[in-house]
Specification:
single chain, about 110 residues, alpha+beta, three-stranded mixed beta sheet, about 25% helix
Length: about 110
């Protein structure tokens, strides 16, 4: 009977000592470096600077098409308050942001 009493104590001591062992510090292969982040196009790729004079005007379909044509943007989206939009950045896309009254508040690339 007495031999059984030492068994849990010996097992507990072995586990305790195993937990005190240091980490494996053997040198391994050098980790791969992350690629550099993509560069965001500099400048005014969507032509937003050319159409800033439309800020403050009431937006309608005809004005929207005129803004897109004047800017030379590859694409354009109109963003209304509270509207869900994707967060991807596209330098050649023109974003026309409207206020609650449908007035153009901002024109930016993205």
């Amino acid at each position: 009977m007495r031999e059984r009493c030492w068994y849990p104590l010996g097992l507990g001591l072995a586990l305790l000592l195993a937990g005190c062992a240091g980490p494996n510090t053997a040198p391994g292969p050098e980790p791969e470096r992350a690629p550099p982040p993509p560069r965001v196009a500099d400048g005014d790729a969507c032509g937003a600077e050319r159409v800033q004079d439309h800020i403050g005007r009431a937006h309608d379909a005809a004005l929207g098409e005129a803004i897109r044509a004047e800017s030379g943007a590859a694409s354009m989206r109109v963003v209304r308050p509270g509207e869900a939009v994707t967060l991807d950045y596209r330098a050649d896309r023109l974003n026309v942001r409207l206020d609650a009254d449908g007035i153009i508040a901002e024109i930016v690339c993205g």
